[in-house]
Amino acid sequence: MPESKIIDLFALNTSSGIPIYRQLVDQIKQAIMMGMLEKGQQLPSVRQLAKALQINPMTISKAFAQLELEKILERRRGVGMLVAQQSKQTEVPLVVSESMQKFIKIAQQHDLDNEAIMLLIQQGLSVKIEGNQS
Amino acid sequence: MPESKIIDLFALNTSSGIPIYRQLVDQIKQAIMMGMLEKGQQLPSVRQLAKALQINPMTISKAFAQLELEKILERRRGVGMLVAQQSKQTEVPLVVSESMQKFIKIAQQHDLDNEAIMLLIQQGLSVKIEGNQS
DNA sequence: CCTAGTGTATTAATATAATAATACACCATT
DNA sequence: AATGGTGTATTATTATATTAATACACTAGG
Lengths: 134, 134
Hints:
2 copies of one chain form a homodimer.
Chain A: H1 3-6, H2 20-33, E1 42-43, H3 46-53, H4 57-69, E2 73-76, E3 80-83, H5 94-109, H6 114-127
Antiparallel strand pairs in A: 1-3, 2-3
Helix pairs in contact in A: 2-4, 3-4
The structure holds a DNA duplex.
């Protein structure tokens, strides 16, 4: 994916109540999972993004700081940012996406809305382990 | 489910960063979805819960205020709280749970952790319509 | 070295949310 | 009406998170 198009990956919603930097973090992880960003891929500069998205450069930087902590991106002062070669986030296998789509379809056919679906999954994930982690 | 056992439904984590009242809201919705709370079912009183869970009564009340707004519970001053007969939250059909469990199993077999699974679903839900928007 | 491009540490301003204390409102039973 | 149980509006405190401004740090290329 050409660097110029990467900016189009981001769809920020400033009135959703979800912090901008978190939206950035999530959307980058998702882009990698969907195969839209590859390891070694260079990202647009903090200032380019900040200008294009009309937000403060530090907000971008904060998002990337978190992503670096999680070993997903590498930041290089004076150079730029790129998807880490050893990124912990990787593209999701097709069978997984397919299984998910099947599940979502069935859930929607039974009138579950998005929030209910998220809650159900959350429940499903926490039940696996007896007692609560998190 | 006997009222005395309902308190056991709640597993609050005061150090998770997730607000207590939101944990209560989510856990009640989940309990209904899992069939552990039924329509018309009476809930323990605000003060009983507050004492058992070691939190302020107003925190319980806040959670229930939200659930009433969403037409899930009914609150009756001087009487108590109960699951609304017309509750918008309903038990999830078995086929849905099964499909979900299948999906979770496959995802975990492919090394997705809980956070990745949640992000994936979130992505899956936001990409509603495949096709042209031209 | 100088410049113009990278990213960022520090700090401050803002915004907002979460929790709790209090006193009050409502209801059923006597 | 008195009592003892319900829930709650109001208010204040606290905590904390988010965003932004500024000045600084690093790098590549001329």
